[in-house]
Amino acid sequence: xxxxxxxxxxxxxxxxxxxxxxxxxxxxxxxxxxxxxxxxxxxxxxxxxxxxxxxxxxxxxxxxxxxxxxxxxxxxxxxxxxxxxxxxxxxxxxxxxxxxxxxxxxxxxxxxxxxxxxxxxxxxxxxxxxxxxxxxxxxxxxxxxxxxxxxxxxxxxxxxxxxxxxxxxxxxxxxxxxxxxxxxxxxxxxxxxxxxxxxxxxxxxxxxxxxxxxxxxxxxxxxxxxxxxxxxxxxxxxxxxxxxxxxxxxxxxxxxxxxxxxxxxxxxxxxxxxxxx
Length: 277
Fold this sequence. Notes:
The chain is mainly alpha-helical and 277 residues long. It has 13 helices and no strands.
């Protein structure tokens, strides 16, 4: 009996939503650990992107102080962690589970679809949180601890950002026939969100209508909230304190909540639970 099937049986025997979700999460962690390629992509892609963009981040925060620089590094790490781990990796995971009939077996038993989706996303959430904690520890040890202007905004950016990209990932999986095809189907979201996030390209270089559109893309509000929460830096380069950060956070928070709701609706509309033939 395969690992997935064994874990599935264990999950069905476990009573209660919490116990079933915990059992399914253990199965997902086990399967992730056995797939070296997926594990490498999940753990290594975001830190590698930070290293590649180190010069750009340094130019953008030049003269702002070591704390702002380390905060910008941490923002980049978390943002790309959400993009590659919560979006790309979850898309490939959902496609693999569907084509292996794992999703069909799980939902034909006592596990609900919500339990399966929550459990499938847990390894990605653990990796993103671990990267954030390790990134903060590295920044504190090598550079300087970010000022941490508003921790509430950091938590909101992490929580809503993860839920949004998980929803978009499950929706994308429904449009993807194979794991290999995910490299193409996820490309539009990856490219558009990276390009207009403000991390790889200064939005000030764009004409004003394009800047407005860029601010409505999924990753931009996450980056804005993280920057505000970690360093108090606004998108136009200004600096605000704890109280002022709430005012600056209203619009990006509304955009992020809207994208999160769209992610949930898209999952309900396009997520497939049986193989595409």
